[in-house]
Design goal:
The protein contains 8 helices and no strands. The protein has helices at residues 3-19, 28-50, 56-74, 84-110, 113-116, 122-135, 141-167, 171-176. The longest helix is centred in the middle third of the chain and has 27 residues, at 84-110. Helices cover 76% and strands 0% of the residues. It has 181 residues and is an all-alpha fold. It has a domain at 3-54 and 112-167.
């Protein structure tokens, strides 16, 4: 097994530390969060793959259409009619989500996934900040420890990627230095 996969598996240990499958952290919320992380990773990789042939606006349109269809199928299960202030919050959510998705699509169109993925860990900082400001909650020591493991593993992978790219030799340059036979 190579070092990248070892780091990925150790990073998953960080996820297990956060979720605490034997304790209070494991439940439907944790399962849904892990499912969301998996499907998000799939969507980022698909976006990166099709970004060469599709515009960002087209990808955003189809993403939004499938999100509306998917959430529309689930909405009747827990429907509550929104009231006055809720509609403004939904509008803010729609605008920020659309803008965020567009920016992510653009970022992954122009940047390498392995270099951009660690930047997304700023979401841990934002989530902690919003959690404190809105609900007066701080991350538990277990969450901080698991997050540190995950971030460390991803930084290790990023460092190895940068080193590997630095060692690669352009075949045209390498061929220019070969003695003629």
């Amino acid at each position: 097994m190579n070092r990248r996969w070892t780091a990925i598996l150790i990073g998953f240990v960080g996820v297990v530390v956060i979720v605490q499958p034997s304790g209070a952290g494991f439940g439907p919320g944790a399962i849904l969060a892990l499912s969301a992380a998996f499907t998000y990773a799939v969507s980022i990789n698909i976006s990166r793959r099709i970004s060469g042939s599709e515009t960002s606006h087209t990808m955003l349109f189809w993403f939004a259409l499938f999100m509306i269809a998917g959430s529309g199928c689930l909405a009747p299960l827990q429907w509550t009619t929104p009231h006055g202030g809720d509609i403004a919050v939904f509008g803010l959510l729609a605008c920020s989500g659309t803008l965020g998705q567009f920016m992510l699509t653009q970022a992954f169109r122009y940047g390498e996934v392995s270099f951009l993925a660690p930047l997304e860990y700023s979401a841990l900082i934002w989530a902690s900040l919003f959690g404190f400001v809105l609900w007066q909650q701080l991350p538990t020591p277990t969450v901080l420890a698991g997050s540190a493991i995950i971030v460390a593993c991803n930084l290790y992978i990023l460092r190895r990627e940068i080193r590997a790219r630095g060692r690669r030799i352009d075949p045209a340059i390498a061929g220019a230095h070969l003695p003629e036979a």
